[in-house]
Hints:
Elements: E1 28-33, H1 39-48, E2 52-57, H2 62-68, E3 72-75, E4 101-104, H3 106-114, E5 118-134, E6 148-161, E7 166-171, E8 179-182, E9 187-190, H4 202-213, H5 222-237, E10 241-245, H6 250-263, E11 267-273, H7 281-292, E12 296-301, H8 303-310, H9 316-335, E13 341-345, H10 350-355, H11 376-380, E14 383-385, H12 393-402, H13 407-410, H14 430-449, E15 458-472, E16 475-488, E17 496-497, H15 502-515, E18 519-524
Parallel strand pairs: 1-2, 1-3, 3-4, 4-9, 10-11, 10-13, 11-12, 13-14, 16-18
Antiparallel strand pairs: 5-6, 5-7, 7-8, 8-9, 15-16, 16-17
Helix pairs in contact: 5-6, 6-12, 8-9, 14-15
Amino acid sequence: MASTSSPAVPAGSPDLNLGFVDPHREELVLVLDFGGQTAQLIARRVRDQQVFCLLVRHDLSLDRIRELAPKGIILSGGPASVYGSGAPQVDPAIFDLGIPVLGICYGMQLACRASGGAVRPHSHRQFGRTNCRVEAANDPLMQGLPAESIVWMSHGDQVDELADQFETLASTDTCPFAAVRHRTKPVYGLQFHPEVTHTECGRQLIDNFVKRICGCQGTWRMSSLIDREIQAIRERVGTSRVICGLSGGVDSSVTAAILAKSIGTQLSCIFVDNGLLRLGETERVRARFERHFQTDLHVVDASERFLSELAGVTDPQQKRKIIGRVFIEVFRKEAETIPDARFLAQGTLYPDVIESGANTDGSAATIKSHHNVGGLPEQLGFELIEPLRDLFKDEVRRMGLELGLPDELIWRHPFPGPGLGVRCLGEITRERLEVLRQADAIVLEELRRAGLYQEVQQAFAVLLPVSSVGVMGDGRTYENVVAVRAVQTDDFMTADWYQIPYAVIGRMSTRIINEVRGVNRVVYDVSSKPPSTIEWE
Ligand code: XMP
């Protein structure tokens, strides 16, 4: 996303997996990554249209682009200003390849500037929802769009003067060139972000570009990604053994499933009980694992160790660091008992990568340090296999279903690596964890009972680090406060708080206060992401 304040120059992302691409087999769209936080989201939206899409470095050579023969090229947003010194540029010859190009935000500014347009800082930096009017309804990019709709803007600069070769397709009150096209070349630009779900017609715009303008048929399927992944894992692993850290969640289960399918009994799974798990989790994981996998499973009870290291720690980042470090130590010790292990498989997803600042070009700001990204492979001395690293949650679910995992597992809400450790605000003790665990179980039980579990993507209880005064019988109480959180989200990068019906939230509250000793108040979290995050710590 373009801004005037951040002249960071993305180094460019590696050309992911390009070795596997057979350009004659798949319709391919390339996203040139200029460092925008939503660059990978663009790729994912294109894949939603059943068109294979890869995120590649912004300075990929024209020769290589020709060799890959993409049907279309999308230039992503980015944090720099196109006129800033050292700002990442694109070879202007890319607009003459005859391959359709769509520039988004920074990408549009590059495209317009290459034809002599002027890009300047705008007096009002625009972030958020804006009403956009279509000016050229007959253009292929605008097909099927209503005359007006909401789009998501996030930019400090914008195109101020349009070169003669360009024409306007859509505008907003403050942005006259919200969508543009070259008059004679298949070059388009959008100042807003069609890849973000807040842009109402985003899906239609991407579909129009990919199908109507690039001429893609949409023949790519999840099964081809799985086949490629299985093939790649087999080639890499050979006859060695792979260890997989199993958490019981969707991501690590899908990772284990794809590995089991690739290398069968060469896989060993390790499940660490860190004492920060939900009610009955260890038993559930063991039972499910035995039902669906025929590989070696090691269950390690390390709760004593984790809780003693966390004693007295209240700082969220500190907690995450401790949990991450102890996890590595416990994991390493267990892994040493498995002979011949050379690889470590992890269910790291793209949002973990991007939000930990470890995205491919390293330009995204660090929001939280996720313990399962970065550092782990070096410290453990294994080679890392991350079959899901480029995927978003819903793509992982599709992969899991395709691999035959049960619905109940696939539709499980995600649970963070640091577990209840980041939901037990303040000091973590066995007693406080027990209070949280029981409250959490009630929240999920009532949500399921109301048939709402799958309406939300994540719901849980949080134990606050404050006490509140209450009255029970004739006596005054001074006890814990539990917050209930439930969110709806497509990709966990943005989220809306969910309006749990009053009757349901009422039952949760009554049951928690009556059944969980030590709680006398329940509150409901009504904040969206951004500016809040889904977890409280
Ligand atoms: P936030 O709180 O950043 O969460 O909005 C986004 C998604 O990521 C999960 N999350 C984590 N997952 N390790 C994980 O494996 C972590 O340290 C971690 N922190 C947050 C969170 O539950 C939500 O699904």
